[in-house]
Design brief:
The complex is a heterotrimer.
Chain A lengths: L11 H22 L11 E5 L16 H10 L4 E3 L5 E3 L2 E6 L5 E6 L13 H13 L14 E8 L2 E6 L21 H4 L22 E7 L3 E6 L12 E5 L4 H9 L5 E3 L3 H7 L5 E6 L3 E7 L21 H10 L2 H8 L4 E3 L25 H10 L20 E7 L3 H16 L3 E7 L1 H10 L4 E7 L5 H5 L23 H10 L5 H18 L2 E7 L1 E6 L2 E2 L11 E2 L4 H7 L1 E2 L10 H31 L1
Parallel strand pairs in A: 1-10, 12-21, 15-16, 15-17
Antiparallel strand pairs in A: 2-3, 4-5, 5-7, 6-7, 8-9, 9-10, 11-19, 12-19, 13-17, 13-18, 14-18, 20-22
Helix pairs in contact in A: 1-16, 7-9, 13-14
Chain B lengths: L3 H4 L15 H4 L2 H27 L6 H5 L7 H10 L6 H13 L13 H36 L4 H14 L3 H14 L22 H39 L2 H8 L4 H23 L1 H15 L4 H10 L3 H29 L1 H5 L1
Chain C lengths: L2 H5 L11 H13 L2 H23 L2 H4 L27 H37 L1 H16 L2 H12 L3 H28 L2 H8 L4 H40 L7 H10 L8 H29 L8
Helix pairs in contact in C: 3-5, 3-12, 5-6, 5-8, 5-10, 5-12, 6-8, 7-8, 7-10, 8-10, 10-11, 10-12, 11-12
The chains are: A alpha+beta, B mainly alpha, C mainly alpha.
Main location (chain B): membrane
Protein name (chain B): Peptide/nickel transport system permease protein
Family (chain B): Belongs to the binding-protein-dependent transport system permease family.
């Protein structure tokens, strides 16, 4: 339209703008490159894929993401460390004891340790860190609940830490472990940042800390670089450098692994694992999974005071219907088809990674796939099939149609939901799959506006929190606020056991109580466990020793922790580390030439245009 | 499709005096700039309103998403909601939002717990590098191919060029990226992957110096190639039709009559004259480039604004999404404004005054 | 490349000749454009496949609980395009996907045309402040980068086809509006409109009886190109995770392939077909649209 009428003018604007862009590019590049401190590149480097959640912040007081905690585990010390037995073992604390009233704990702290800047690392640092979390609202952001039962934390001398609790607390030795809970930070560094803790990014490299590694650089959403601490008290890392690189797509990470740009990936998906099993130069291992995938059924959402809220289908308040749904789901098929067999059918609420808490139903109590029985249960309960095969709720005469909320960004949810819909159809329940973003789903969850939700959790070695989200105290108030309940479960017997296990200090006794709680959950059919998938890892054959423990009969290792894996990783003899391929280098040079050439051409064009006028 | 002549719209220009000369030529420079600036400001204001309305329509509870997997108490959840301003009424949030935006604050990211402004600033560099490189190369390639095939419209060269361009334009950008990734990076069959699978640099290399630049260039190859392949097609089409428009012009006849060779007529006369309209159109199509950046950066994990948008989308981190939306819109408005001003500045009739 | 850009040089479109003679002449001219014929043939083929798909594809072959194929296996006699991660036949998914993808593309285009033509005609007819205001709104929307806007819209409206359709329409109506406005201005300048006005026709009558029939050919051309754009947008938005993972569209297939390890498994049979299908159909719409455009207005028919 405009072409014909427009006056003919110079070509210069385009050329000028193009040049500007060309100049801006490298400038932008320079600014972004400035963030990372170049670390010395001599020595051997272990390159691992960062946890796909990434790093939200390097401030250990306000971070939530697993990627952050992997780094904190590497660069900050903790009181204890979870050993291969899944229990707390000595780290900063060499031993600990409890008073006879179960309220006072005394930790003996190692002597002679120094922060990476040479300052002494003592019990005072631990006391300061824990006190800050107890007293400062911002410092309590991520881990405040772990210390909420503390009445005081003191360090009477550099090697003694005393913690007093208000009530007995059986999980006390779990509150400061690498990767899972509170990292101890150096008081002399952090003291001056307390006032502005919320905005402090902790990004002056190298970061002062103590651990197997020291953080030397971090680029948001790209990678973190770390150097080994060769005098680390639990043994020196075998590598000199550690790089954690973030890949948004696990296929990209696998590609990098295969082409030698990466040494280790934890958490490849089933399809990738199957094809990597036969790839040369790659070792694959399975280890016990620390999470479950399942389905929540809305048992009738109620507030703390017992008021019903939300739009959940009232039919689901009937335990018979919930049991029928549980029986109609073929969990073994989900294991076989969705996760290619890398996992086990879910039963107990706590995952196989922490064998101490694993519970299995006894032979007669197992809920196995049995659609005939499910149909029979529903027939007996008066749910008659309508003309289209959909059953009618006898209480209100409405057809049984349930919404199934799934996380739209989760490929497992997407893969599982059609199966669930298919199986429920077979027992006369219509399912409407409703993909939602995480925030929308959580919003509906909290308000009780749901029938069925796909759910998945992972948890650390201490079950306190996971057990807690099934407690009546996590229900929302009458306005629908303040809750962090998992599925509006509330059961008085469960409640009693929950407080009981908190005061049991003999692990076996506590485990027994926890088992009873898991049985209550299993029988309630509110959280249906589908499967516990195993953790799938792929390691370059140039690295050994990354897996700790010995595999079981199914060739599944015990749960792995990045803390131990990175510490134990050993380069294979004769491997000089990796170098990028030469083809790539030449392609890079060619690309640079093209860019420069293009720039030159633009400039020449412009001068030509000027001549013409 | 807008053009510099219409972006401002009549309302912001003085009533046309009866004159044969174009209005723009009579308008004082300052007034012209002021008009264009005002239009850009209004556009930006509308963008802000649209942005706010969009992102406050949705019920969402980011707090549980943010804290997922951490043992966070209920009191802490409540405190977080207050901190994020989720407890305030909408009108108050809008006032806060306008105030914040005018002060250069773009809100507070739920996911990263950092100010959106600092997050976006840190991502602008890589995006400029990727878009700048792809833009320059695709414009040059598109213009060159376009003028060649337009000059010899109907020739074999033209037919090959045009159909290739049309085909590549019909390819979904992300899919092309996936295929390139599969072939060049993962490797397929006998081909071994020889380019990095994503990111912008190899962290095991020093992050400065020549080696670093070459490394970045290597990482740039695939994303830039994907963008160029998809984007250059429209530049071919634009330039081709401009040249075809020129072909019938009398001044070309004159040039030929002077005895210039065909090549010289094309290079010296037809191309320069066809360039300006084409270039104007190209600037009007910068939006396409931005769209491309989102998908390409997502596929190749290129740490730019598009990738940030994609990250924000997963949660969705509404303040961050709103922030990138505002930044993208502002950059398009700014580019259009610059194109307008440059156009006026370079108009020979105006300069002659 | 938007519809408007392709059409830009024919702002003043051809007059619309008397109905039947026009159709015949149109068909004859169209036949002389092989690329257009090829494009149309592709479209007819895919539409046919989409329409008859339910005759030979049962829900049982798409229901993951019923299929029993091998998981993600390479093409074989029984599965010409291999299987997906759940053991479904990729060829059947591809054919079924054409239904959903085309439906979204066409509904989004219909919405686009209704909004765009409505605003364009009103703006062109009324002129004055109404027209100016409408064109201002259009300009603002043009200034917004379409993909980020569509992403934001779809994210806010929630997952699924409906919100994707709305997002596409909301970001692509501007081109149609501008075109139609220009054409409306041209039509209203013609004597027969003035005659109608003199005979007492109201605004509504003029817009519906006089202007609309005369801008329809232009709308048709621009809509074929809009469908092409809408298909690409659908695929992109779905790929970015805004679609319904439980439905079967080409974009959803690519999303599944990309995020579930199809690369590592070298599952080219799962990655290539949906992309190629999008490519072919988009090309089909574009070629058809361009051919129609050239036939309606031979001036764009340069010297090729």
């Amino acid at each position: 339209m405009v072409l014909r009428q427009r006056p003919r003018l110079l070509a210069a604007p385009a050329a000028a703008a193009a040049c500007a862009l060309l100049l801006l590019g490298p400038a932008g590049l320079a600014t972004s490159a400035a963030a990372a401190t170049p670390s010395s590149t001599s020595g051997k480097t272990l390159r691992v894929a960062m946890d796909s959640s990434g790093v939200d912040t390097l401030n250990p007081f306000t971070a939530y993401f697993n990627g952050s905690y992997d780094i904190f585990g590497a660069i900050y010390p903790t009181l204890t460390v979870i050993g291969q037995d899944g229990r707390p073992n000595p780290y900063l604390a060499t031993s600990w004891s409890m008073s006879s009233d179960h309220l006072t704990w005394t930790f003996k702290i190692r002597k002679g340790l120094k922060w990476s800047d040479g300052q002494p690392l003592t019990a005072a640092d631990a006391a300061w860190t824990l006190n800050l979390i107890m007293t400062n609202e911002v410092a309590g952001t991520a881990n405040g609940t772990l210390v909420s039962n503390f009445s005081s934390v003191t360090a009477p001398d550099p090697t003694t830490l005393v913690i007093r609790t208000k009530q007995p607390q059986s999980n006390l030795t779990y509150i400061s472990t690498p990767v899972y809970s509170i990292p101890i930070v150096p008081e002399h560094i952090w003291k001056s940042h307390v006032a502005d803790l919320k905005n402090y990014k902790n990004d002056s490299f190298p970061v002062v800390g103590y651990g197997p590694w020291q953080l030397t650089g971090y680029k948001t959403d790209q990678y973190a670089t770390l150097d080994a601490n060769k005098s680390f008290v639990l043994g020196a890392p075998k590598y000199d450098h550690l790089i954690e690189q973030l890949y948004k797509n696990s296929d990209s990470a696998v590609a990098a692994l295969r082409s030698g740009q990466l040494d280790y990936i934890e958490g490849v998906n089933a399809t990738e694992y199957s094809s990597l099993k036969h790839a040369s130069g790659v070792t694959t291992t399975q280890s016990a999974g620390n999470g479950w995938t399942g389905l929540e059924l809305n048992p009738g959402a109620k507030t703390r005071s017992g008021k019903s809220i939300g739009t959940g289908n009232p039919a689901l308040t009937d335990p018979t219907l919930r049991r029928a749904i549980a029986l109609s789901i073929d969990k073994q098929t989900l294991v076989t088809k969705v996760i290619d067999g890398y996992g086990s059918v879910g039963q107990g609420y706590l995952p196989p990674a922490w064998p101490e808490w694993v519970w299995k139903p006894s032979a007669g109590e197992e809920q196995t796939y049995d659609p005939a029985k499910a149909n029979q249960l529903l027939d007996q309960a008066g749910y008659k099939r309508g003309a289209n095969g959909i059953r009618i709720n006898p209480k209100n005469g409405k057809p049984l149609a349930l919404r199934l909320g799934i996380h739209s960004d989760d490929s497992y949810d997407a893969a599982i939901s059609p199966y669930v819909a298919g199986w429920l159809k077979a027992i006369g329940v219509k399912v409407e799959i409703d993909p939602m973003s995480m925030t929308a789903l959580n919003s509906d969850l909290g308000k009780g506006d749901w029938d069925m939700l796909m759910d998945a959790w992972t948890n650390g070695p201490d079950p306190t929190y996971m057990l807690g989200i099934q407690s009546c105290t996590t229900l929302p108030d009458d306005q629908g606020n303040g809750g962090n309940t998992d599925a509006f479960f509330c059961n008085p017997a469960y409640e009693k056991l929950l407080s009981q296990q908190q005061t049991q200090f003999v692990p076996a006794q506590r485990a027994k109580t926890v088992d009873q709680m898991e049985k209550i959950l299993y029988d309630a059919d509110v959280d249906l466990m589908f499967y516990n998938k195993t953790m799938l890892t792929a390691t370059s054959s140039k690295v050994t020793g990354m897996n700790t423990g010995t595999p079981d009969a199914k060739d599944v290792y015990p749960a792995q922790s990045s803390f131990w894996s990175y510490l134990k990783a050993t380069p294979k003899a004769g491997d000089s580390g990796s170098s990028s391929s030469n083809v790539g280098l030449w392609v890079g040079i060619a690309a640079a030439v093209v860019v420069v050439g293009a720039g030159v051409t633009v400039v020449r064009r412009r001068s030509g245009a000027d001549d013409r006028e | 499709m807008s053009s510099p002549a219409t972006v401002a719209g009549p309302a912001l220009e003085p009533p046309a005096a009866a004159t044969r000369r174009p209005r723009t030529a009579r308008m004082p420079w300052a007034r012209y700039v002021a008009g264009k600036l005002a239009a850009a400001v209004v556009s930006f204001a509308v963008t802000l309103v649209i942005g706010f309305v969009l992102f406050n329509m949705m019920p969402s509870d980011p707090v549980r998403t943010m804290t997922r997997g951490r043992p966070v108490s209920q009191a802490e959840l409540v405190r977080l909601r207050v901190q994020l301003g989720l407890d305030k009424p909408v009108w108050q949030r809008f006032l806060d939002f306008v105030n914040d935006t005018l002060h250069g604050r773009l809100g507070y990211s739920w996911e990263y717990q950092r100010s959106v402004a600092s997050l976006t600033m840190s991502r602008i560099g890589p995006t400029l590098l990727l878009m700048g490189t792809s833009f320059v190369i695709s414009v040059l390639l598109g213009l060159w191919l376009g003028q060649r095939s337009g000059w010899r419209a109907g020739s074999l060269f033209d037919r090959i060029t045009s159909s290739t361009a049309l085909t590549l334009w019909s390819v979904p950008t992300f899919w092309l990226g996936m295929i390139l990734l599969m072939v060049c990076s993962v490797g397929i069959g006998p081909i071994h992957g020889f380019l990095p699978a994503g990111g912008m640099s190899d962290p095991s290399l020093p992050q400065s110096g020549l080696r670093h630049y070459v490394d970045v260039a290597r990482h740039l190859v695939l994303p830039a190639l994907t963008m160029i392949l998809v984007v250059y097609a429209q530049y071919v089409t634009i330039m081709r039709s401009s040249i075809i428009e020129e072909i019938g012009s009398p001044y070309l006849l004159t040039a030929r009559a002077k005895g210039l060779t065909d090549d010289n007529v094309r290079r010296r006369h037809a191309v320069p004259n066809a360039l300006l309209p084409s270039v104007t159109m190209i600037f009007m199509h910068l939006g396409t480039l931005i769209s491309g950046a989102v998908t390409v950066e997502a596929v190749f994990s290129w740490p730019g604004l598009g990738d940030l948008t994609y990250e924000a989308l997963k949660i969705p981190d509404l303040p961050l999404l709103q922030g990138t939306f505002i930044v993208f819109s502002a950059s398009v408005i700014l580019m259009n404004l610059l194109a307008d001003l440059a156009y006026r500045f370079l108009d020979p009739r105006v300069r002659a005054q | 490349m938007s519809a408007a850009q392709v059409l830009s040089s024919q702002e003043v479109a051809a007059a619309v000749p008397a109905r039947f003679a026009g159709v015949r002449r149109f068909a004859r001219a169209f036949r002389h454009r092989p690329s257009g014929v090829a494009g149309l043939a592709v479209l007819l083929l895919f539409s046919l496949l989409a329409l008859v798909a339910p005759l030979f594809i049962g829900q049982d072959q798409l229901d993951v609980t019923k299929v029993d194929g091998p998981l993600l296996s390479a093409p074989s006699g029984h599965y010409p395009l291999g299987t997906d991660q759940a053991g479904r036949n990729v060829l059947l998914l591809l054919i079924w996907g054409s239904r959903e993808s085309l439906r979204i593309g066409i509904i989004a285009t219909a919405l686009t045309v209704v909004i765009g033509a409505g605003i364009g005609i009103v703006a062109g007819h009324y002129g004055g402040w109404v027209g100016r205001a409408l064109m201002h709104v259009t300009d603002w929307f043009i200034a917004l980068p379409s993909l980020p806007l569509a992403i934001s819209l779809a994210a806010v409206l929630g997952q699924g086809e409906t919100s994707i359709t709305i997002a596409i329409a909301a970001t692509s109506w501007t081109a149609t509006a501008r075109l139609v406005r220009a054409q409306t201005l041209a039509v209203e300048a013609r004597p027969f409109v003035e005659r109608a006005r003199a005979l007492g026709a109201g605004d509504w009558q003029i817009m519906v009886r006089q202007v609309l029939p005369n801008v329809t050919p232009l709308i048709l051309v621009s809509s074929t190109l809009t469908v092409a754009g809408a298909l690409l947008s659908e695929a992109t938005l779905t790929f970015l995770g805004l679609g319904n993972p439980a439905s079967i569209t080409w974009g959803e297939m690519l999303n599944n392939a990309f995020f579930n390890g199809a690369f590592t498994a070298d599952a080219w049979w799962y990655l290539l077909p949906p992309g190629l299908a999008i490519l072919v159909v988009v090309l089909g719409f574009t070629l058809t649209g361009r051919a129609v455009e050239h036939v309606l207005d031979p001036r764009t028919e340069d010297r090729s």
